[in-house]
DNA sequence: TTGACAGCAGAACGCTCGTTCTTTAGGATG
DNA sequence: CATCCTAAAGAACGAGCGTTCTGCTGTCAA
């Protein structure tokens, strides 16, 4: 799971750090960490962080600032899974952030959310009412699901190429393939999907 | 939405800060922010942050450290759907903002994420590799998609009733309906779905 | 053509931060 | 009972940090 598991004591320190980060969304200075950890010496705080770094829970920016690593956010939902014999490997899920946001969105400033209408992509598992997470850019690869602008309308389709021409392929046999004349304007690329039940 | 909307320029600065935070998970020093913002003066960085604070995007800890606020993580949500005609760029429209986590997760303590395996629910738009957001409880309604424990394995199916008996119905004709003998153990109810492309 | 202001650069300063080194107290080991 | 080791405390220090002030442009309105 990690390079080297932290000791029981370090695990406590880690928990306190995680709690602090959860409410402040930043790692404080050594002085402030003294209070958080309940100890009095800055040097020991550094020693703790150094160990947590070795264990893979925190990292440093190029300019020496402490930041949480992927592992820092890993959630132990493994326990419930293990006991029931879940068929999915636990290791696969370990690194994922419980805060979905971080998982889905790499570039917040160019990412937007668009509700999906219609069922033209139903065979791709995209249904009406789903929310498409779209990264705005005008370059896409063949096979990407893109949001394209066709006749002043947004449409969600798979980008494909046919005889040297870009086409937009729906994932529903009831819908026609769109063959845009002239240039094809791409608004963004689908990077995620969110669905809320009930 | 916010106390006062940031100017166009400040919005750019905010975007850069959000992107930086997305990859480093911390707000850097003024000196480092100079590089991020592409400016040369620390005092101007402070002026920018002061304005972003007024607009409600960043806050300060009691010891003066800059931290992101809730608004910082809000995502733009397009008003119109993907296929509803809309010539205006989505970024321009004054849509809603929301935080994905808050939207999907009502009860953090009882909500867990389980990767989906297999394609037994493909007709419900649930595909292998999707992540199911599951609220842990043992009561569900007919028609709910539930995570049930059958033969010590987790399985995702629609809960139904047949001749007074609870059954688990897959959304794929290739899979059989599960008719558990005795009691049916329900682990939780599907409240959301997340998919990441690429 | 003057002035006001927005947008930024640059310097100056005191204080805090991270780092390193030394010391200490208690437990385990032998 | 000597000696390790762990878990801290504490001091000392220089670099870097945030803050404040002043200066320098360009723009626009009067």
TrEMBL record, chains A, B:
Pfam families: Peptidase_S24. One of its GO terms (molecular function) is DNA binding. InterPro entries: LexA-like, LexA/Signal_pep-like_sf, LexA_repressor, Peptidase_S24_LexA, Peptidase_S24_S26A/B/C, WH-like_DNA-bd_sf, WH_DNA-bd_sf. Its EC number is 3.4.21.88. Residues 80-191 form the Peptidase S24/S26A/S26B/S26C domain. It is an enzyme of class 3 (hydrolase). One of its GO terms (biological process) is regulation of DNA-templated transcription. Keywords: Autocatalytic cleavage, DNA damage, DNA repair, Hydrolase, SOS response. Belongs to the peptidase S24 family. This is LexA repressor. The lineage of its organism: unclassified sequences, metagenomes, ecological metagenomes.
């Amino acid at each position: 799971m990690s390079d080297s598991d932290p000791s029981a004591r370090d695990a406590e320190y880690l928990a306190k750090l995680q709690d602090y980060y959860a409410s402040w969304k930043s790692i404080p200075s050594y002085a402030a960490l003294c209070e958080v950890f309940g100890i009095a010496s800055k040097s020991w705080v550094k020693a703790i962080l150094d160990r947590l770094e070795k264990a893979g829970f925190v990292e440093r920016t190029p300019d020496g600032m402490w930041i949480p690593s992927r592992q820092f956010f890993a959630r132990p939902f493994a326990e419930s899974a293990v006991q029931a014999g879940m068929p999915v490997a636990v290791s696969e899920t370990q690194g994922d952030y419980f805060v979905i946001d971080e998982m889905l969105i790499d570039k917040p400033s160019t990412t937007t959310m668009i509700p999906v209408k219609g069922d033209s992509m139903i065979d791709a598992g995209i249904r009406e009412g789903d929310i498409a997470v779209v990264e705005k850019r005008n370059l896409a690869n063949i096979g990407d699901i893109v949001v394209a602008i066709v006749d002043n309308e947004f449409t969600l389709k798979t980008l494909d190429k046919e005889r040297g021409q870009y086409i937009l392929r729906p994932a529903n046999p009831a819908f026609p393939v769109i063959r845009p004349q002239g240039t094809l304007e791409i608004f963004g690329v689908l990077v995620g999907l969110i669905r809320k039940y009930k």
